[in-house]
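Support reply, case 0932

Customer input (verbatim):
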Amino acid sequence: MTLLTVWPDDQPRHVLLRTEDTGAIVAELARIGAGFARWPVDGGGLAEAELLARYQERVDARIAGPGYHAVDVLVGEPGLVERSANGAEDRFFAQGSAVWYLHAGREVHAVLCEPGDVLTIPAHVRHWHDGGARPDHVTIRVRHPAEAARGALPGAVEPGAFPRFAELVAERADTWPVLTR
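Our regenerated output:
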């Protein structure tokens, strides 16, 4: 199951929310302009062209809008550096797991994604990711057209100060209650 954990950006050990409830994940991510969905996983271990062909219809639905959209397949790329992009991006997890951290406003939202998860990262939101010591996640990335900036970004944080992939995986349990703010 997908896991969402939220911390204040200046208190990486103070949990504001921790949940595996899909409805709560969708609602919380929508609050910061991000998105979350699930696609059925249809096979694994495919080459890039086969993987794109297998999910072509779903990818095409994501790129139906105007402007230039780029689609690629990424395997276990490193990402422990906070950054932002001018366009939104969707990440479909075809296999493996990784944590995507979204630094929006004064909070950091960590989404432990698993096969079938689709995470939409809004334009201009600082983010980084961690796939563990030997990242093996495979994602289809859909990059959307650039958007005008909507205001100042929050100050940068130290990604290493927040619980990493291995710690979040080790702590997870199906019995966690949904915590509220």
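We compared this against your earlier run and they match. Two observations from our side: The chain has one domain: 3-171. The radius of gyration is 16 Å. Please reopen the case if you see a mismatch on your end.
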